[in-house]
Amino acid sequence: MKPLLLITMLVALYSQPGHAEQAKATNPAGIEVIGKGEVIVKPDTFIFTITISERAATANDAKGVVDKKSKEILSLADKLYIADKDIESSQLRIRPIFAQENHRPQPKSDNESTKPQQRPALIEVSRHITFTLLNLNHYDQLLEKGVQLGVSSVSRLRYEVSRADFFYQQALDAAIEDARMKAQRIAKHAKVSLGAVSYLKESENFAPRRVYGMTADAPNYQSLPAEQQISAQVRMIFEIN
């Protein structure tokens, strides 16, 4: 029994430092803090989509109206010096409109199944034009023109920051500095000396966020973008000397 007891003690003796090192790696000793930083900026890019659609007896008639309205909208954009790269015009979408689409469908009888296929009552043609604006005043002018032309819909105005990554880096720097100041205050009250950083992790939940504006429903609507907050958060552990 003595040899077995000796082997057991040796195994326990050599395994304890390993467990201690593993625990130390999992929960490193030191002062652990969460740092937060934020930067307040104003959006400088404004995106929205105008939808133009028309229904007519023939596709050519509907297309003619859609093309005419599209041309007037794009002509105004040209006068406002909006670059071609900031305008995205979709291809025409053509959809047949059948009479029964406006009524509740009735069950078919055996005789009806042999009837020839019904022809569409109308043809709908539509196009989407998306604008990326650098001047918010252009939005109100394009919106007013769209209302005058009787466009089908105008999407929600979306505000974006073109240099969001740049401002996020500033927020990240502020978060790291905030964590360092917190650790220094804790070390001072604990009467210990703050050492080097042993652990640092950026929180993925604090990536740059977009802010969306309100939908404009009238030509005299004045679009006023709110300031946008770009935040960052880090978790840091400082050694204690």
What labels describe this entry?
about 240 residues; alpha+beta; Translation Initiation Factor IF3; Alpha-Beta Plaits; 2 domains; seven-stranded antiparallel β-sheet; disordered N terminus
Can you walk through the features of this model?
It comes from Thalassotalea mangrovi. Residues 101-113 have a biased composition (Basic and acidic residues). The protein has 241 residues and is of the alpha+beta class. It folds into two domains: 29-42 and 162-216 and 224-240, Protein of unknown function (DUF541), domain 1 (Translation Initiation Factor IF3, 2-Layer Sandwich); 45-103 and 118-160, Alpha-Beta Plaits. Helix content is 36%, strand content 30%. The protein has four helices and ten strands; from the N terminus they run H-E-E-H-E-E-E-H-E-E-H-E-E-E. The chain has helices at residues 2-26, 59-79, 136-149, 164-190, and strands spanning 31-41, 45-56, 87-89, 93-97, 122-133, 153-154, 158-160, 194-202, 211-212, 228-240. Strands 2, 3, 4, 5, 6, 7 and 9 form a seven-stranded antiparallel beta sheet that branches. A three-stranded antiparallel beta sheet has the order 1-10-8. Helix 2 (59-79) runs antiparallel to helix 3. The longest helix is centred in the C-terminal third of the chain and has 27 residues, at 164-190. Residues 3-15 and 211-221 have low confidence and may be disordered.
